[in-house]
Amino acid sequence: MIPSIPQSRYAKGIYGAYVTLFFIYLAAPLVVVGVFAFNDSLFPSMPWEGATLAWFFGDKAPYVGIFHDSALLRSIGTSAFVAVWVTLLSVIVGTCNAFLFERAKFPGKNLLYMLAISPLVIPGVILGISILVFSNAIANGIEDSIGWDLDFLRPGLFLVIIGQFAFITTITTLVISARLRKFDITLEEAALNLGATRADAIRTITIPYLKPALIGAAIVSFLMSFENFNTTLMLVGSDAPLTIAMFDRLKQGSTPALNALSLLLMVVSGGLALISVFAQRDRSSK
Amino acid sequence: MKHTPGSVAGNGLKLGVVLMATPLLLWLVLLVILPHLDLLMVSLRERVSYGKYAFSFANYIEFFTEPLYWNTYVRTATMSILATALTLVIGFPISYYIAKVMRGRGKSVLFLMCLIPFWVSELVRTFGWMILLRESGVLSHFLQWAGLVDGPVEMLYNDVTIMVGLVYTSMLFMVVPLVSVLDSLDDSLIEAGYDLGGNAFTVTRDIVIPHAMPGIASGCIVVFMLTLGNYLTPNLLGGKSSLWFTEQIYTQFITRFNWESGSAFGFLLLVLSSLIVWLGLKLSRQTLSDTVG
């Protein structure tokens, strides 16, 4: 079943048809979401009532488009706020971890490495509840002993950021480590021989080399944070990030404004996906 | 002196190592280790009176004696195993096609087409399935238009639909490791298999699948874990009849505010998930670092 082995046209045809069907299966839900963003009906369902842009720009009830839906717009802001913090924290800590695991030698390194990748095998819901239970215990302990009410340890954005950071850091660590492992250490040694301090060598040689991985890790963390649902669900307070707000709308049944929003999300995340893929490709050809 | 990466730093940089390890340790201890220990502690206590707790196995006993909880647990595990198997069976020929049949530009385009849907939020993908499958949905209208059915058909809220959604959501995590492992299989091995009198079936069984084993293992482990811990897809596509274990955890925590039994459920799910991951790694003789790295 490789091109150099002759196959009957019949077998080839069936195989090709299967692959085609598979890609229809992959594309169907996304295409449907996009198309119904333009349906001139109050519900994202059949029949087709003609095309409209009202679900993007409409401002008269019941045709409230996404650009006039203040609740959803606010939740986009909330998600972006969370995602920026998560990205910043997890890329910084991930870089530290990568240097530690790739460069340093210390006892217990393997155990720490195992622990560092363990968040990947913890279901998101459980990561969420464990952080919820623990932060609540700390908050209660502090309140009982010294009487301070630490509000940020109760469900809310701080906990959402912390919870997402807890597993996204594993991913940034892996991405940055993989690039650092390929770094030619003699370049840094040359800089040191030429009189650079260690900090200078890292800043002018190693970090620029790591840049594609840092950008890749940042894009991935931003998207993973923006789209996270399971961990966020358990830690969310009164400010709902976008996924939570969309989930509530979906449960209630929603207007095609939700399709319009989904279409915009698809365009943005698809674009980011392409950027990161092409960044990766340039890297390998260098 | 031999220059290894560690010795460039020199011994004088012990302090540096400690400084660098601080964020790592803070992260692991405060956000991973202690919360899970606390989860275990909370699951092992029982509320005696207001604000007073005693050590007890009551939450675990409740789990094993209440058929609803136990059945949901077993059902979630069984459905996850089935979803993993289906994802593998559907994804394998696709991965093989991308890795071995396609050449050059078409290959990377096809691979990209596999990846892109998964950059879109799971919520959006599930929403798409809802529009396709609901009573007033696209498929129902198509069937009526084609004259195959008389009235609207509701295709949401049953197990088959949950399965379709779960397989869809997991596909990427199966296809990527499979494509990369099949890419590394030398074509000449397949040709040799045919030269020695093999046919498509025997070559696949004796050459392709044994070679792809590491990819199959890592794909299955990741898919199983994600399916087991999924909340969105069973909840939205299965509705009230989905009976997924993560929903039980959510109900105990958020709706009933019974954190003790919710913690016990969470811990049981964690044990199941870790057990299967461990078993998968043992059977395929891999380590966790190989699988995720």
Question: Which properties best describe this structure?
Answer:
heterodimer; A: 286 residues; mainly alpha; MetI-like fold; two-stranded antiparallel sheet; 11 helices; globular; B: mainly alpha; two-stranded antiparallel ribbon; disordered N terminus
Taken as a percent bin, the fraction of beta residues of chain B is under 5%
SSE topology string of chain B: HHEEHHHHHHHHHHHH
Helix content of chain A: over 70%
List how many beta strands of chain A DSSP finds: 2
Number of helices of chain B: 14
Chain oligomer state: heterodimer
Characterization of this structure:
The complex is a heterodimer of chains A (286) and B (293). Chain A is mainly α. Helix content of chain A is 72%, strand content 1%. Chain A has a domain at 70-254: MetI-like fold (Orthogonal Bundle), CATH 1.10.3720. Chain A has helices spanning 9-35, 54-57, 70-103, 109-117, 124-146, 157-181, 185-193, 198-227, 230-235, 242-252, 257-285; strands spanning 59-60, 63-64. A two-stranded antiparallel ribbon of chain A has the order 1-2. The longest helix of chain A is centred in the first third of the chain and has 34 residues, at 70-103. The radius of gyration of chain A is 24 Å and the shape is globular. Chain B has a single domain (58-292), classed as MetI-like fold, CATH 1.10.3720. Chain B is built from 14 helices and two strands. In chain B, a hairpin with a 2-residue loop joins strand 1 and strand 2. The longest helix of chain B is centred in the first third of the chain and has 35 residues, at 67-101. Residues 1-12 of chain B have low confidence and may be disordered. The interface between A and B is large, with 96 and 91 residues.
Write the topology of this structure:
The complex is a heterodimer of chains A (286) and B (293).
Chain A: H1 9-35, H2 54-57, E1 59-60, E2 63-64, H3 70-103, H4 109-117, H5 124-146, H6 157-181, H7 185-193, H8 198-227, H9 230-235, H10 242-252, H11 257-285
Antiparallel strand pairs in A: 1-2
Chain B: H1 5-9, H2 14-43, E1 45-49, E2 52-55, H3 58-65, H4 67-101, H5 104-115, H6 122-133, H7 138-145, H8 159-183, H9 187-195, H10 200-228, H11 232-238, H12 245-255, H13 259-283, H14 288-292
Antiparallel strand pairs in B: 1-2
Helix pairs in contact in B: 2-13, 3-13, 4-8, 4-10, 6-11, 8-10, 8-11, 9-10, 10-13, 12-13
